Amino acid sequence: VVVDQVGAPGSSYDQFMAALPDSQCRYAVYDYAYSNADTGQINNKLVFLHWAPLGSSIKSKMMYASTKDFLKGYLEGVGAELQGDTQEEITEQEVAQRVGAAMTRK
Predict the structure, then answer these.
(1) pTM to 2 decimals?
(2) Which of 15, 64, 75, 97 is most buried (most C-beta within 10 Å)?
């Protein structure tokens, strides 16, 4: 695994999405800030994204899918996971729902 890009602290979700290539698979991790409904405190959760856009090759999609769990095993603190092939599937609202669902399971 080779790091392709690192976003600046405080980067927006739109900036994160803009960095995803149109025709190449990627793994991505986003530090998502959310407000705790109970305390009103701002917290962060790491969100793991498996990006396999429609324009990427079948071989690339298969390679990324088969190594995803191996890579995730080395990451600590992932609070939610998403997989998408279009940006409409991985909206910020979807991230918020996944983080919220992960929080209620704990």
Answers:
(1) 0.85
(2) 64
Three-state DSSP state, 56 = coil
Q: Where are the domains of the chain?
A: 13-104
- Who's near 5: CB < 8 A, 6+ residues apart? 19
Q: What is the homologous superfamily of the domain 13-104 according to CATH?
A: Severin (3.40.20.10)
Task: Indicate the pairing of strand 42-51 with strand 26-35.
Answer: antiparallel
Query: What burial class does residue 50 get, using C-beta atoms within 10 Å of its C-beta: 0-12 exposed, 13-18 middle, 19+ buried?
Result: buried
Question: Are 29 and 63 a contacting pair, CB within 8 Å?
Answer: no
Half-sphere exposure of 35 (CA within 13 A, CB side): 2
Q: Which residues pair with 106 in a beta bridge?
A: none
Please give the DSSP secondary-structure letter assigned to residue 22: S
CA distances from 90 to 17, 49, 67 (A): 9, 9, 20
Per-residue pLDDT reduced to its tens digit, 38-88: 777 888 889 999 999 999 999 999 999 999 999 998 998 898 999 999 999
